[in-house]
Design a protein that fits this description.
globular; Peptidase inhibitor family I36; signal; four-stranded antiparallel beta sheet; mainly beta; G_crystallin-like; binds calcium ion; Gamma-B Crystallin, domain 1
Length: 116
């Protein structure tokens, strides 16, 4: 599928993080959350999506071009997009995956696709 390259990049980032993992533990799975940070490796300010989301959502203006890392604790995959309305470059986060935003769109994320 077209997203395989992006998911490989995310997995490599997770493997390279070593023990600097503390902030990711601040992201709850019950109820399920998508957690986003403006620093790398789950550091800095955090923004969360909870509840039922599907399809494309543009991030709030205060978080536009600001997301550096993420932890997807939802039961669905999410895809971060470079531009509005889910266009441009992507970074894919399967369920249970944390890591820095890949795909060359760190600090460039403007919209998010929730689901498959
Ligand atoms: Ca952007």
């Amino acid at each position: 599928m077209v997203l395989s390259a992006a998911s490989l990049a995310v997995s490599t980032g997770v493997l390279g993080m070593g023990t600097a993992h503390a902030a990711y533990s601040e992201c709850n799975s019950s109820p399920q959350r998508l957690c986003l940070w403006d620093g790398s490796n789950g550091t800095g300010a955090k923004y969360e999506y909870g509840g039922d989301w599907s399809g494309c959502v543009n991030v709030v203006s205060t978080w536009n071009d600001r997301i550096s890392s993420a932890y997807n604790r939802m039961s669905i995959p999410v895809t971060l997009y470079q531009h509005a309305n889910c266009s441009g470059g992507i970074s894919y986060f399967r369920q249970g995956i944390s890591g820095n935003v890949g795909g060359g769109i760190g600090n460039k994320v403007t919209s998010i696709w929730f689901g498959y």
